[in-house]
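User: I'm curious whether this sequence folds into something compact or stays loose and floppy. Could you predict its structure so I can see for myself?
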Amino acid sequence: MITHTFQMLPAVGAKKERAIWESGVLSWDDFLSADSVGSMKSDAKSRGDSVIMQASELLDDGDCSGLAEMIPKGEAWRMYRRFRDRAVYLDIETDSLSRDSLVTVVTLHGMGDTVTLTEGIDLTPEALSQALDGAAMLVTFNGSCFDVPVLRNSFPEVCWDFPMYDLRFASRKVGYRGGLKPLEIEMGITRSDEIEGVDGADAVRLWKMWQRNGDRDALDILTEYNRADTMNLEVIADRIFDKLVRDHAGFRW
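Assistant: Here's the prediction. I'll summarize afterward.
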């Protein structure tokens, strides 16, 4: 999808982008090879050529962050397929719902590995940085509003400046509503019996059981719950992306 977007061009939003597609110009290559594009004036076309060549160079260099700076934040999902092998799926648990909450458990899944880090055991800035090493983008559910701001507050030493494919907002583009668990149910994604029905409030309670009583079973359930949250993001991200391409964009590339 990234090579089919034109929203990095000056004054081009979703409506003008669609008009470009409907004119028969579906990709960056189409744009660069065309003598003219729809009703676009020649000087605007020349400026567009320069912008697209810059974007193409960034893509060739694998610079996901550089590309992200050229397009609206809400369109970062378009880069997902191209950078999927360097995507990190991320989810956290906390002891409350405020931005200054204590981060209790973090799972990072992707690039061939799944790492779960726990407060007081192995959750450190160094461990987080190592798990993120080589990542191009983050995939979260509501991470732009909660997970990453909380992590940034708790671990300012760690670089969190990654483009984000936030499934909370991406799923709304294709008609889904509600939180992560209803979305999983609608998609037919199941969980193990041990964590079926566990929710965010339970996650806080389980952490307190571990902290106050040393209840290892509670910590194990919390860890499994967080890992399921995170690993299920991969399945959801793939399905939402396909729907975005098919339903939101309206074209088959």
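Summary: DSSP finds eleven helices and five strands in the chain. The chain has two domains: 2-61, 82-246.
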